[in-house]
Design a protein that fits this description.
α6 links the parallel β2 and β3. It contains 10 helices and 6 strands. The chain is 46% helix and 12% strand. The model has no long low-confidence stretch (mean pLDDT 94). The protein has 2 domains: 149 residues, HAD superfamily/HAD-like (Rossmann fold, 3-Layer(aba) Sandwich), CATH 3.40.50.1000; 66 residues, DNA polymerase, domain 1 (Orthogonal Bundle), CATH 1.10.150.
């Protein structure tokens, strides 16, 4: 191990937070507000991780831009209401894994998410995670995943070289983003895209519970 900082960047929805019920319910309400037909649940969850305008555009490319913008705004309102009523839970083992990683002097933690800054701040505050991450990149400030802008900003902000960084996420968007930034990638098999899709996207490893994360990180450093 060298003295250079090592950066571990996490996606949020589908990786740390099990938010699928809130996301689908908010999308259902948003589409209903405009009397549009909601795509199947599988399709809706497949676009989690993209910035909201990009996600809606992929779901309903046939709708005019004005209608898609209305869905985006309705989703924001619906999700905010649902979020206030109930908290999306952390995945099992997430809090413990983050605490162990945070305690290591050789590691820095970050997040790169399709959430807004307001949405991310709410999630981190309500789960007591606000102090865990030294860099937090959100959709407000960057192009949508899989563009590598979020990760390039995280590397610059922390003074970390790409070879000393790992991106962890549950979608092909996360894996493609990490690869585009020159970082190692670890896919998680409990989120929105299946393990075989993560491997096909080029994930260096795929894990199926948080207990496997520390060994996976050690392997990633060894092969960097």
């Amino acid at each position: 191990m060298t003295g250079a900082p090592r950066l571990v960047v996490f996606d949020v929805d589908g990786t740390l937070i099990d938010s699928q019920n809130h996301i689908f319910a908010a999308m259902e309400q948003a589409f209903g507000a405009g009397a549009h037909t909601l795509p199947p649940r599988e399709a809706v969850l497949s676009i989690v991780g993209l910035s909201l305008p990009e996600a809606v555009a992929r779901l309903v490319p046939h709708l005019p831009a004005e209608a898609r913008s209305a869905i985006v705004e309705a989703y924001k309102q619906s999700f905010g209401t649902l979020r206030a009523d109930a908290l999306s839970p952390l995945f099992p083992g997430a809090a413990e894994a983050l605490s162990r990683l945070r305690a290591r002097a050789d590691l820095l933690l970050g997040v790169a998410t399709g959430k807004s800054r307001r949405g991310l701040d709410h999630v981190l505050a309500t789960h007591g995670l606000a102090g865990h991450f030294v860099t937090a990149q959100v959709a407000d400030d960057h192009p949508s995943k899989p563009h590598p802008a979020m990760l390039l900003a995280a590397l610059a902000e922390t003074g970390t070289e790409a070879r000393n960084a790992v991106m962890i996420g549950d979608t092909t968007f996360d894996i493609e983003m990490g690869r585009a930034a020159g970082m190692a990638t670890i896919g998680v098999g409990w989120g929105y895209h299946p393990a075989e899709a993560l491997r096909a996207a080029g994930a260096g490893q795929v894990i199926h519970d948080f207990a496997a994360l520390l060994p996976a990180l050690e392997r990633a450093w060894e092969t960097a």
